[in-house]
Amino acid sequence: MTKPNRAQHSNAVATAWQFTEQVPHGRELGMQVVSVDQGQVCMRLTPQSWMFAQDDTKEICTSVLYSLADSAGGLAVFAGALELMPIATLDLRMDYLRPASGDRALLALATCRHLTDEVAFIHCDILSEGNRELLATANATFMRNTQGQQFHAGGRGKESA
Amino acid sequence: MTTIGDSAQHISGAAESGKECADWQALLERIPYAGHLGLEVQWGDGGVLVHLPCREALIGNFMLPALHGGVLGALIELTARVAAQSQDTETRCPRILDSHINYLRSAQARSTFARADIIRQGRRTSLVQVTCWQGDENKPIATGQVQLLLPTMAAQQEDRHGH
Question: Positive or negative, the Cα torsion across A76, A77, A79, A80?
């Protein structure tokens, strides 16, 4: 997938974007960052049969949507804050509105709703590609400036704990 | 599965524990994503546990390193699902409606365990509390509450036709 707008972002967002794509669990699930546009993060995931919720259905396991929301939410913190710092998920609440079909890619749209010095409040919607109906919604709170780990410029920081 | 009075979650005796583990394992094995994560059922001090072995692909932060928050989300959701399904007399396949997970401590790159406590098993819904820990069960790294819907017969049939 091309990344037309990564270079246009601040260094912080570009670095966080790069970091998100390097997260081992995100790579395993095949998560891709599609765009970061005016504070809104779009990520995409192509379903595979090992992600299914039951051996006799083609429904994607809710936990895959959960992982996608957590990753998109983490990147949305940087898209909102425009600075690099270690962060950690404090809590995440998912509502699964509809079953997620394994026939279509998942899209996650995450935005930072509010930012304080210590906390970021994130909302994330999950949809099937090419379909406007919501599959799931997430609300998450992230702690900013978590102790114990320096954020090294040039690439890497805490995405979620 | 067998249940003894109201204390179905605290069955004692080797035969029951073996059967409960086997029941849980059979339910887990029907979930492709649980197999991919490597979830396995164990018998712990206070009952049946789900063990998540660590591997590199589960890392969410390679600097600490720490497990991805979504990996703990999966451990909690799938443990809740198997707990609710094993308690259901018809072992109906539950649908996860919502889950709310609180992260309490950093999840290190090591084995993680989960235990389920059923808060309420109703006729149509089940609310399950799941606790995750690594070295010390008294120092949980995450807790979650999962609300599940147990499908009615009509909904199950509709589901079958739909696929």
Answer: positive
How is residue A120 written in tokens? Answer: 């970021």
The ipTM assigned to this model is 0.87
Number of domains in chain A: 1
Identify the CATH number of the domain in which residue A85 sits.
Answer: 3.10.129.10
Residue A155, domain member (yes or no): no
Q: CB–CB of B102 and A71 under 8 A?
A: no
Superfamily of domain B8-162: Hotdog Thioesterase (3.10.129.10)
Segment A74-87, tens digit of pLDDT: 999 999 999 888 99
Looking at the complex, report in whole angstroms how far the Cα of residue B3 sits from the nearest Cα belonging to chain A. Answer: 25
Instruction: Check: CB of residue B58 under 8 Å from CB of residue B71.
Output: yes
- Give the range of the structural domain holding residue A48, as residue numbers without chain letter: 6-144
Q: Which helix (H) or strand (E) holds B23?
A: helix B14-29
| Token code pair at residue A47 | 């379903």
